[in-house]
Amino acid sequence: MSFNADLGLESAADGSVRLEAGPRHQVAPGTVHFAVLATLAEVAAAAAVGAAVVPATVQLNLMRRAAPGELVGRGTVLKRGRTLAVAEGEVTQEGRLVAKATVTFAVLEG
User: How far apart are alpha carbons 79 and 109 in whole angstroms?
Assistant: First the structure.
């Protein structure tokens, strides 16, 4: 099983990445751990690139507390070159932005 699958991330038909956050994702009662949000944002950004990539740098901004429940990640490519790509990943809950990451990826292939 992959790390993403073990965490509970699922790719949706609309290109988003989704997670039903539960007790195992919490850092404190009612609060999802920042690392879960960072992973969801990074995976969504990577999916937007559309190639095999690994993160080189990640800048994460936490906008508000995320509670257990559905989290949705969506990515946008800002610039893609032959060896590097820069993309953003946004995580929302009930339509409200909870985290945003800007990620520089090393492009491995594609």
Answer: 16
Going by pLDDT thresholds of 50, 70 and 90, the confidence category of residue 109 is confident
pTM of this prediction? 0.95
In the beta sheet, which residues pair with residue 106?
54, 84
Interatomic CA distance for residues 100 and 88, integer angstroms: 7
- CA angle 27–100–49, rounded 5-degree value: 115
Indicate the pairing of strand 84-93 with strand 69-80.
antiparallel
CA 17 to chain centre: 7
Task: Look up residue 62 and give its two tokens.
Answer: 């936490």
Tokens of 67: 């509670």
Q: Which of 40, 37, 87 is nearest to 63 (CA)?
A: 37
* CA pair distance 96, 70, nearest whole angstrom: 12
